[in-house]
Specification:
Largest sheet: 5 strands, mixed
Number of helices: 7
Strand content: 15-25%
Radius of gyration: 22 Å
Shape: globular
Distance between the termini: 35 Å
Helix content: 25-40%
Number of strands: 12
Strand order of the largest sheet: 1-11-12-3-2
Amino acid sequence: MAAHDLSNCADAAGMNRSESAQRSREVQGLVPSKTSRQDVMVNLSKPACAERRVKRLKKSVWASGHLHGIADHGHRPPVCWFVTLTYAKADSWKADHVSKAIQRFRDWCRAAGHACRYTWVGEIQPGRLVSTGKAVVHYHLLAWLPVGILMPHWDRAVGRRAAFWNHGMTNTEKAFSGVGYLMKYLSKLGELTIFPKGMRLYGIGGLTAAGRSVRSWFNLPEWVKRSHGVGEVKRIACGFVVQATGEMLEAAYSVSVVSGALILRQLRDIPERFHDGAYSTFPRAA
């Protein structure tokens, strides 16, 4: 849980030097660990931070993939297409390449009158990493188009339309298992995966307002989700606000810093879950 989601702690009051030293030794592991009934220790080492980053990535991709595939009222479900974008040269990657390609695809969708719905993830090509020793990037993208509409080849120009992707080869096919395609590639990621500096790991676009609410709910801290449903709470810089009343939620934890870790101390009782997931808390029409 990020520090800005918690109330600030003035200092590590109540922790004597021996306690601090003991906790500093305990944080040498690679995963968060509980130190008492109230306290949670969050490791800030690079492998542990990378592992949490990948975990958030998987959660967002899974949620967006299912939400994109929901049919609009009165329409057949959209067809999911799977596109792989690769580089011809191992060292030609730049951070804005994928965003520019997505913008060209978005322009094509707008001109054709189609909703632009997509989810993409970045990956390091394991084979080229082993053979060349270089972290060669490629991208996997899912996009949802109406029934009967074919996905253009991203590396080919047609008439006045420029190629969406001009940095190497692409592959396009129908994705019969939808988001399962992306989750297969994400299963290879772990805490030791190294990405180039400045690389975005994923991108999501075209969700409906309801879909964005569900995705936002999935990314809330567990203590918030236990007592509030989809669309009920908004995240702001200094905490969480209840939409209906404007009330700031009382912080559930305080945070203090020790060497290489954060100590999260529980400030109040946290209720049991009142629901079975996002869709059981989704607002119903009157």
